[in-house]
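Possible regression after last week's pipeline update?

I re-ran a chain I had predicted before the update to compare outputs. Posting the input and the new output here so someone can diff against the archived version. Not blocking, just want to make sure nothing changed silently.
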Amino acid sequence: MAATVSLMSLSPVDHTMKCVSSPVTSMSSQSTAESGSESHAFVTLVMKSDKYMAGALVLAQSLRNNRTNSSLVCMITHDISVRAAKVLKKWYDFVWTVPYIRQRCVTFKTRRQRDLYEDWIEESFTKWNCLNHEMFGRFDKVLFIDADMMVANNCDHQLFGLDPPAMTFSLPWAKPYCPHGIDNPYGELRHGITVDVDLIKRGFHTFLGIGSLVLVRPDQRVFNQMLKLLRNQMFFGSKECFSGFDEQLICATYVSLNQSFRHIHQCYNWSVSKWEWLSIAGEGDTHPKIVHFYGDQKPWYSSRNFQWSDTIEWWTIADQIIASDDSTRRFFELQF
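New output (post-update):
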């Protein structure tokens, strides 16, 4: 049987393995990118199928509605339909085809985890193509954002103003937000505060940063180090850590390079319905700026008559998209 290597046992090594990508630039990118900042970009990913197309379109429109000054990039894999790629090019400044980053992972502890993640967890590392300087080097900072998120306020300054890397080192299922929850080594953190390497190492025994919203600087050395950490293990991941394997990998990469993180406050990475998670001292604003429809209850699987305000807002943006381009309708009507 293959042994699982500890995530924290690997030291930094100069690594030259490269992941070559093929950029497919939007036909409208020249005009749209000129109005955005080439130094910053929001980056998302649609992979495996057209299943997340509805989410990716609403994400882009929500950013446009809130007048982002940053470029919008959508990474896609080769198995996305030609029709979907064509539509994405209308909403994103750049649509780039990226290779899968795959690795076998350890078995999940619970049936619920297997049901939610087993179909795609071995490809979840694909999102970290955004570290690849060969593709993303035109940007000084990129903010990876999951395609099942919706932006409610312009957050460009608050997020791109941080020093990368940055993640949310807090969980709604951890103490003190959940009295009988996971042990929390970080305490209550203010937005932008430094989370040092020693503290993150402790997190490998509980939980790490959330991978749905991650600020990085494209860097070939970091990208190659990440690939080396991943390939050095026959089965990647630690069952001791509550965080996903993609989150474990990005944190292990920077820790191996002795690089600390900045904390992104949870109001910029709010999990739907977790209101108690926003009640943190020192922030002064408990209004969610970015909403994450985590888990398997996505808005595009829900009725338009669903009464949660966040889902209603999501469908309002979806209707705005459909009204402006009827070719998008099928992505909101497909039942997966």
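Follow-up from reviewer: compared with the archived run. The mean pLDDT is 83. Marking as no regression found.
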